[in-house]
Design a protein that fits this description.
The chain is of the alpha+beta class. 36% of the residues lie in helices and 34% in strands. It contains 4 helices and 6 strands, in the order E-E-H-E-E-H-E-E-H-H. The chain is globular. The N and C termini lie close together (8 Å). The model has no long low-confidence stretch (mean pLDDT 83).
């Protein structure tokens, strides 16, 4: 495989978007799947190219709110020109848990974003 390279990175309060060159959708989707699995997430719905990754207990989240650790992300991997874009967005806001819940979701997105920047070196070689 050619030298996979991160060519673009964008982060907002709602999502993270990365663009890779010298790769294909399948390789990037596999890398994203390995990445989320390594972080303790499971693919709860959809496919590796367009799915929902989550971790934590749904029931505990319903009863304990911000005291439970439940995170859920919409993940899309799609072509963009000659490159591949990965977009990770919030599937749950944490608002049911008030300010604490929303802050936890934002903190987890930021943590994942930092780690996703190294996807090529860790998962695509």
């Amino acid at each position: 495989m050619a030298d996979v390279k991160l060519v673009s990175y964008e982060e907002t309060t709602e999502n993270v978007s990365l663009v890779f060159e010298n790769t294909d959708i399948g390789s990037v989707a596999d890398a994203v799947g390995y990445f989320f699995a390594a972080e303790g997430y499971l693919l709860e719905g959809g496919t590796k190219e367009n799915g929902v990754y989550a971790k934590g207990n749904k029931v505990a989240n319903a009863f304990l709110g911000p005291l439970a650790n439940r995170y859920k992300w919409n993940v899309a991997v799609f072509p963009e020109s000659q490159n591949v874009r990965v977009k990770v967005g919030k599937s749950m806001t944490g608002r049911w848990g008030g300010a604490l819940g929303a802050r936890k979701v934002k903190k987890e997105l930021n943590r994942l974003a930092v780690k996703m920047k190294i996807l090529p070196s860790d998962f695509m070689q």
